[in-house]
Amino acid sequence: MYKEFFKNLAEKENGQFYFTDENISIGMGVRSPNVIYKITFTYKDNLFTIINQTGTNYITTIRCQLNDTLHPIPFTVNTTSHLKNLFLQKKSRLIVTTEHSNLKYFLSKNNALNILSEIANKEKFDPNITCQYDNVWSIETNYHLEFDNWTDPIEPIIELYKNLINHF
């Protein structure tokens, strides 16, 4: 099921799909499964890498290395806990942090981020999205897979990245 999802996504994005399924020895004769789904593709000369690990780690990392022609603006998107959100009475659990009001407005109106917000409100989806410079500009999202339908956020995150690339 998941293998087909990632394979189809790679085809949709004209990218490459990689899959490994192996057992890792964790000592004293105990073995743990390690399943990795990986997709790479480019969009307007920006390299996307999606790595989904299950078994020893249950995490997804979606990274886009931005090309040098763009002028990105640093930002972060984090979540508040469900409990804290009850007291804050906010519509979204996602919190955008940036010093640029135009980018904050752009993100608040972005349909892909709104879809991610809906997922966060329904599920235990707690993404950490950052756009920062570390020798190169990149946008990166990390989230754990401790919720049902953990493939649901992948396509909206890709769409968010593409929207940001077009915006920058």
Strand fraction equals: 35-45%
Number of strands: 8
What is the CA-CA span between the terminal residues? Answer: 35 Å
Q: What proportion of the residues is helical, as a percent range?
A: 25-40%
Structural class computed from helices and strand pairing:
alpha+beta
Mean pLDDT reading: 85
* Total helical elements: 5
Oligomer: single chain
Rg, Cα atoms, Å: 17 Å
Low-confidence spans: none
Biggest sheet record: 8 strands, antiparallel
Order of helices and strands: HEEEEEHEHHEEH
Molecular structure report:
A hairpin with a 4-residue loop joins strand 3 and strand 4. The chain contains 5 helices and 8 strands; from the N terminus they run H-E-E-E-E-E-H-E-H-H-E-E-H. The longest helix is centred in the C-terminal third of the chain and has 14 residues. The protein is globular, with a radius of gyration of 17 Å. The chain is of the alpha+beta class.
